[in-house]
Amino acid sequence: MILGLVLALAAALATNLAFLFKYRGAIRVAPIRPRHPLVGAAALFRSKWFAIGWLVAILAWVLHVGALARAPLSIVQAVLSGGLVFLAVLAERFFDLRLGRWQWFGVTITAAGLAIIGLTGSGAARPQRSSLAGLIAVEAAVFAVGAGLLAISAHGRIRHRVEGLLLGLAAGALFGVSDIAIKYLTHAEGVLYGLLSPWTATALLAGAIAFYASARSLQIGPGIEVIALTSVAANLVAIMGGIVVFGEPIGSGPAAIGARFVGFCLVIAGAALVPVHHAAAREPDAAPRLAASVS
Fold first, then answer.
1. Residue 292: what pLDDT?
2. What is the distance between the alpha carbons of residues 183 and 206, in angstroms, rounded to a whole number?
3. Whether the Cβ atoms of residue 133 and residue 94 lie closer than 8 Å to each other
4. How does pLDDT run across 73-102, given as a tens digit for each residue?
5. What is the pLDDT of residue 282?
6. Which regions in the chain score pLDDT beneath 50?
7. pLDDT tens column, 177-228
8. Which of 2, 95, 234, 279 could form a disulfide with 172 if both were Cys (CB 3.0 to 4.6 A apart)?
9. HEC profile for the chain?
10. What is the pLDDT of residue 278?
11. Gap between the terminal Cα atoms of the chain
């Protein structure tokens, strides 16, 4: 369990660092178009900052998979929620992005709410069962919601800022689907079954769609707000998966259930506050100090 928590904390740091690197690279290329996905992906990877972000994201994914294999899903997501605080600190200190006072407050209470939701829903023991019916229900529902968000974002009258936020939410939901599928695969009997499982394809499909949705959201939306909403959506979907798919308890009593309700209220309030103020950024060609030290 302790190793799982350490891996989750490292994954939270790496995930948000990757998002910020990818944001720095994504805003330097033309927005990707759904009709030309390969051309858009090639353009993104020609940006060195996006490529660095992708490599860091791979490291974060490996750490995340390790955490999911060693700790309950909702506990892992509760630790990952602390990444919102990492996001705020890294963005201001190293990436020249500025958060307003209300954004800081929103990020803080959202992270606190997610932590409460995760920690009040799990016992100390790792869950030993999983529900295939629950997995199908959750993933079908989230895919439907994600598809709806993508369809709304494509409406011609939607402003770029709103489109970016909607795409960020859709990407986060699909990242959550991928996390649930990966966690389910850790219950598979044997490596070969896990690799040949249809849930491997589900994780890959959700991840591929989320990749494009997230990249475009970073290109056209406000960076901090998009990243925060993507993280919130991914965490909430994964926590829901922990409850429905893996039987992690809603709460051990009235106090825990009440705390979870408060946690959800904090998440909603915090997510609403994050987009209040546009984060100011320097010109895109000004490399972040942390990134500059890499080259």
1. 45
2. 14
3. no
4. 666 766 776 677 778 788 888 887 777 777
5. 40
6. 123-127, 191-192, 194, 278-295
7. 888 887 777 665 554 454 566 767 777 888 888 888 999 899 888 888 888 8
8. 234
9. CHHHHHHHHHHHHHHHHHHHHHHHHHCCCCCCCCCCHHHHHHHHHHCHHHHHHHHHHHHHHHHHHHHHHHCCHHHHHHHHHCHHHHHHHHHHHHCCEECCHHHHHHHHHHHHHHHHHHHCCCCCCCCCCCCHHHHHHHHHHHHHHHHHHHHHHCCCCCCHHHHHHHHHHHHHHHHHHHHHHHHHHCCCCCHHHHHHCHHHHHHHHHHHHHHHHHHHHHHHCCHHHHHHHHHHHHHHHHHHHHHHCCCCCCCCCHHHHHHHHHHHHHHHHHHHHHHHCCCEECCCCCCCHHHHHHC
10. 45
11. 36
Return the bridge partners of 97, or none: 281
**Count of all residues that appear for the chain in the document:** 295
Q: Which two tokens stand for residue 123?
A: 């016992």
Cα 235–Cα 238–Cα 240 angle in degrees, nearest 5 = 110
Q: How far apart are CA 91 and CA 261, in angstroms?
A: 30
For 163, the token pair is 């489109």
Among the listed residues 15, 6, 1, 7, the one whose alpha carbon sits nearest the alpha carbon of residue 210: 15
Q: Alpha-carbon distance 176 to 163, whole Å? A: 20
Q: How far is CA 23 from the centre of its chain?
A: 14
Side chain identity at residue 251, one-letter code: G
Cα gap 46→203, rounded to integer Å: 26
Q: What b-and-e string marks burial along 179-204, b requiring 16 or more CB atoms within 10 Å of the CB?
A: bbbbbbbeebeeeeebeeeebbebbe
Phi/psi for 111 (5° steps) reads: -60, -40
Task: Residue 109: name the closest of 288, 270, 284 by CA.
Answer: 270
In terms of Cα–Cα distance, which of 176, 76, 185, 178 is closest to 130? 185
